[in-house]
Amino acid sequence: MSGKIPNLKKLRNLINDFDTKLTSKNSQSPYKTGEIDEELNSALRTKPKSHHKSYDKELLSKAKLEMELIDKELKNSSSPDDLCISSESDSSKLSTSFHLTKSSAFSQDKSSKPKPSIKQSQLETALETIKTLNATIEDKDKKISILELKLAEKEELAETSLKKLTQNTKIIKNSEKDIVKIKKEYEDQLKNYEKIIIKIEDENNGLKKKVKNLEKDKEGYEEKMIGFKTQIQSYEEVKKQNQELRKKFDESLKLMDNLQQRYENLVESSRAFEEKTRELYKANQALQENILKLLPEN
């Protein structure tokens, strides 16, 4: 009970901060429940019943916009492996390849062979341009197939994003319900804490009164302890005196034992002396009788 009691204001402030943080997170989050519900409802209404994998027009337009942005970024990129190449660059490449093949053909003809006719050179250049055009068409076909694959991937991504949106709406709704429940639980706990704190404060007031009474009793006990200490000191002095008297008494007992033994020895010796005196008295009487017998009678 000697520890500090928690303050009610601090607990309330902590819960208010928790609520404000939750509201700010919900307001700042990109997944707003109202907008998500509207988008999902519109998407479900516009879906045909026969084909389950058909998408909403708005989502397709968004996907097209994203594809256009990707195409623009690919056009702006300078790497040679870019997939989307503009028609102007293709035409410039074709013209450059055409001029290069033309110049190379003329140079080879000049170096190795005599000058051919104009029709023959035109045919050769036409053949070269046809070859280059076929190669560019093959490249374009490859790029178109890659773009079709990318479109399919985009459609799959759109479908997965729709599923994620539905899952996120459910999660957000469930989390909001859980937050309301948690808030109610915290409020109930706060009420219980308030009751407990009131009880603890009452108990502390009672304990303070008891402590004051104990302090008063302590002063009386200290005075009594001083008296007891003086009595103990006097008892110790009496104890020392008793020990000294005990020693003297033991010594006197030893002397009494010695005197008793001497007295007993004297009594025994007096008895022996008395017996000897009686024997001597009897012997003296016998001698006197014998002397009287021996003496002549007058």
UniProtKB/TrEMBL annotation:
Stretches with biased composition (Polar residues): 21-31
Keyword terms of this UniProt record: Coiled coil
Region annotation Disordered: where it falls in the sequence: 21-57, 73-94
Coiled-coil ranges per UniProt: 123-276
Superkingdom, natural source: Eukaryota
SUPFAM superfamilies documented for this protein: Tropomyosin
UniProt protein name: Transforming acidic coiled-coil-containing protein C-terminal domain-containing protein
